[in-house]
Amino acid sequence: MGKGNILSLLILTLLIIIFPIVIKDTYLHTIGIFAGINALVAIGLTILMGYAGQISLGQAAFYGIGAYISAILSLHFGLPVILSIFLALLVASTAAIILAIPALRFKGHYLAVATLGFGEIIHIMLHEWGPGGPSGFGDIPKMNLFGFTFTSTNDYFYLVWICVVVIMIFSLNLINSMTGKALQAMHGSEIATQTAGINLTKLKIKVFILSSIYASLAGAMYAHYVTFLSPSSFSLFHSVFFLMMVIIGGISNIWGGIVGALIITILPEVLRGFKEFDILLYGLILTLFLLFMRKGLVPMTIATYKRWIHR
Known about the structure:
With 311 residues, this protein is mostly helical.
């Protein structure tokens, strides 16, 4: 992990600590919680797409699996929340393996369609067979860790963003390890990577599992925060929603996942004041990002900074 990443982590940690202290508005704390939950999914998607070169339009499926499995186990079977989350991650990992094995035969747009189909299958299953059906279900237990129940928004804000920091530390070390170099090599050329003696099948399965764990963890944290779930929260729209975070933040840099999650989560709230024009403005802003900032905010900011230092 380079000095730049260490400094960025320290700044992020400082901002996390002071935000609830300086900002007293509970509504803003709630937005911060959702931004952190979204960031967990976006970080995993950045590794999957930006570093490994594997396209996915089905992250909402893993998000939903984590949410529903953890909620059902804790509510209907009385398991401790932390155990329910752990089992939800195992189920999501298994689902990722089931998806990855046939999907390994596809590339590019075909892989995108395969993951999209997987996401729709999970959405239909939640809609038809999930507790409460399309109406959803509530009374999900609050997050409980070592006897402490996270009831206030302040407590949950710190919990979510501590998870984001831990995930970032792990992810930054991963992409700078030999496995990370192999992922980047696979993105560059699968043939050259295979020639170097790297098992592409295992590598692809591992990165699918990793991104599914991140997304299912986010889903479980979402479930135990809102305490109500319905299938509409895990549709194709949400997969596209996560994809936009990665694209706007910068798909080629893992920090882009956090920046994109913050922007996409906060932007609709900022535009609410425009009433019926908020959707139009939201679409216009996203279109401008895609037209003029295709590399994403983080890579463009880094490139601009390097040019400024050079001059």
